[in-house]
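Hello again, I could really use a second opinion on something today. I've been staring at a protein lately and its backbone has me curious. Can you walk me through what the tokens say about the fold? Take your time with it, there's no hurry, and the full record follows here:
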Amino acid sequence: MSDQTTMTPGRRRAVLVTLTATVGIFVLTSTLANVALPQIQGAFAATQDQITWIVTANLLAMAVATPMSGWLDGRFGRRRVMLCSSGGFIAASILCGLATSLEELVLLRAAQGFSGAPLLPLSQAIIINIYPRAQHGRVLVLWSMGVTIANIIAPLVGGYMSEDYSWRWVFLMIVPPAILCFLALWHFLEKSEAQPTAGRLDWFGFIFLALSVSALQIMLDRGQRQDWFDSPEIIAEAIVAVGAFYLFLVHVTTTDKPFLQLRLLLDRNYAVGIIIGFTFGMLYFTTIVLQPTMLQTLQGYPDSLIGIIQSTRGVGLLTGSFVLLTLLKNIDPRTVLFLGFLIQGVAGLAMSQFDVNMTLFAVTWTTFLQGFGVGMMWSPIFLVTFATLAPQHVPEAASVFHLLRNIGSSVHIALTATLVVRTSRATYSEMIQALNPFNETLAFESVMGQWSMASESGLAALAGEVGRQAALVGYVNGYFAYALAAILVMPLAFFAKRPQMV
């Protein structure tokens, strides 16, 4: 891959646009598939437990393949890896749209995640390599636009395509633009003149890490449904995750050529950056996961309206990115990171004040604000994390960064779901105790209205309202935990050294 001293400005811009679109399509596919899950479940007559494997298989494959990106780059070169990754992703997407069984679709989703996983870290490494350090802040903001636009399009298009046409078009519709991106990668990415620097793959290190990450991912995905450590399955997965990770640490600290170099963690900015990236991953999906079920359960909103509301998060992302283009010229990126977490904390606190009569405006502006905070943080996180690393270490470091970011998302989704479900159940148990014949309030029909213990319909209405109120408590607790995490991590930004932009 050419560096900044040999590539013309016009070619740099073409590469930037190509990589932005490529990453956007990859992210768009993952989000679209999640939107179409109810239609896929109906098409294959699958249970809730079975249908979640469509998401789990994709996440597992991405988690396994992402750490390999650095080694693949050193062994085969970025251009070859990007083309093979993009081509494999296109083929897997076509086959997903043509799948005839749930088992086939799960395997193809795994292939889609495995083949597309290197696109994100290697595209970031290419941009950092071809642009001078003084321009990294601006170009990384522009590069993140692909993810931003995907967040706007996916909720709107996904529900429309799957409901009015077929879930198959969720996969097939991205094939034409993905082919265009493949052709652009073929044309604009230059062949590297450097010889391969990576030797044989450290199979022991790779297998231990893959086992650990896979077991952790499955445990987090199935934990709540299996009642966590009351389940032998979850206990077994936890033992495998911890044991394999221990063997991985022992191996990489004692072998001459480890799969991943732990000495990268000695770089202060990188060590701080991956912690911030892990937390950023935790916060990124909170509203995406909690909001649809909350609005359906408490307000009865249709899918089309929920899609519009979720798209305002993407508008907030886009707005935050444009504001960031101005701020990075004059403000320390660490300060922008601090402000981004602060804005997310404020949004989370506002969401934690929701009640069962929440207005559409309250939901929309808080969703926009959460997206705005995320949009302000994309580029500063990368600037801080990779500011002091040598260019040759960026592909491997980016692979680990994105792996931990994805794990952070999985951890937070699992913990938040557990918090919401368990606090809702506890609240329901407490509230239901007041519904008994000795409660004098229940005797006044003028006060109770349709809620009555004298008829089956009234009793059902009363139980439904108690369930709705209890569910609200669970959701606001989830949003409060989200706000608390954002506020606690804010000072961490200043533990890193200020990136030198010149």
